[in-house]
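Quick start: what a row looks like.
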Amino acid sequence: SGLNKAIYILPEKSDYYKKVAQAYTSEASISPYKEKYLSMALEYYRRASEINPADAWAWLGIGDSFLYLGNINSARGFYKKALDLDPNNSYYLKKIGDLLVSLGNIDEAVNVFKRASLLEKKSMAWLDLNHGKYEPETYIEKGDLYYRKGNLEWALKMYKLAEGLGSEEMSIKIKMANILERIGQVDISGMR
């Protein structure tokens, strides 16, 4: 491909390695050989990070590759590295927040999302595609979807996120109490 030729001609240019890695990541999403393409993406991101260790995007790409390969702990470490290099990047914070949600660390995720939201309000980053991600209503809707699907654990997590992000809707408290009662963690029958 043209990018491989560019790498051959300018092997010290990390951007080319990242672009090839992104192409492999995209291919992995549609290929039955997902692991093969993700492993190739990982190697290109690693090479980009070796060429330019201060390139936070390369470290984020390594983290994404590990996440998609199922190695969450490694992903978290590389996301943290990207954030250490660019601590005011709300996108990196969102990635960490999403990872924390998937691990069930709701309180920590809420804090990370609040920090990302604050950074976005201070910059033009709020114009990105994820604008509104920190609105409590988004998590209420997700909670409702999980609830309707019968996934009470994840519904509860989404409602807790909404509450942590500042929702004061009484309906969330009622929904959380109902879920806790259904899963046997609290008895609210005498409260009605």
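That is the whole record. The two ends are 67 Å apart (CA to CA). The chain has ten helices and no strands.
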